[in-house]
Amino acid sequence: MNKLNSMKAAVGRYLDERRSLGFELIEQGKNLLRFARYADERNHCGPLTQELVLGWACEHVRRTSEVTAAGRLMKIRPFTSYYRQFQPDSYIPEPGVLGRERRRPVPHIYTDQEIVELLEATKRLEPRNGLRPFTYRTLFGLIAAAGLRLSEALNLTVSDVDLDAGTITIRETKFKKSRCLPLHPSTVDALALYRQSRECYFHSGKSAAFFMADDGFCLSASAVSHAFHQLRTFMGWQSRGDHPIPRIHDLRHTFAVRRLQRWREEGQLIDQGVYWLCTYLGHGKISSTYWYLSGVPELMDLISARFESFVTTGELT
Questions:
Q1: How far apart, in whole angstroms, are the C-alpha atoms of residue 97 and residue 100?
Q2: Which residue in the list 8, 249, 264, 306 is annotated as catalytic?
Q3: Most CB contacts within 10 A, which of 155, 266, 291, 309?
Q4: How many Å apart are CA 235 and CA 114, to the nearest integer?
Q5: Annotation says 149 is catalytic
Q6: Which of 42, 77, 196 is nearest to 134 (CA)?
């Protein structure tokens, strides 16, 4: 097959064109490149066929839920429309052809005991006399205590962590927003202890990464994922959500769920709390925060109580 006519080349041209217009297409790009490899491995040429497109979406179906397969299809559908300009007989999948596309998988919500176990287990990481165990204990603790995305925690610099004010500054994250987050005093104390230990190993400026690896470089997401996999395997955790295994990102989900539960117990107005939580978490849309009320079993009782109140009094509590 001529490389210029390969599916990988077609995908590359599509991504270059879209990105020149300002679209990042990070996740979509990864999916399209997987589709391109799938097509090129089968020496496909000419118009996209239904067999090719649906075959890729449903590949390894035993390891892929119906929602995931439909989601795959949704992510490459814009490309199929683009490709049809050059191959008019190309197949464009109809919405819903593989079922629901947008159901968010239920996350694993950690218990308090699981989080304690995770932080304690970091002491097992090698080298035990190095900074690494303390780094991961503090990193996972901060994600759990502030509901951060992993990328947000890893991108923190020394100057972003204001121990005197008890805040951290998250800069230019997923939706190009920055936000300053107040922290619980116990979290500030934990960060201060880590900062003190860190300075014994590295004397770095304010622009340096706050979380450092033992080799003096900033932590990578892949290194953190590897360490978390080791700890998860050691503890033998089983997922209570739709994902096959508990994830680091589920610490963020747990933060959101526990905060909403606590407001409910304290009699706070949930709608006001959701707006605050949306800002704190850095969500792009308020609907992403409201999803927690109906998307996880731990908060379904709250939805039931609100619906019962509405039916009885005509007002939401």
A1: 8
A2: 249
A3: 155
A4: 9
A5: yes
A6: 196
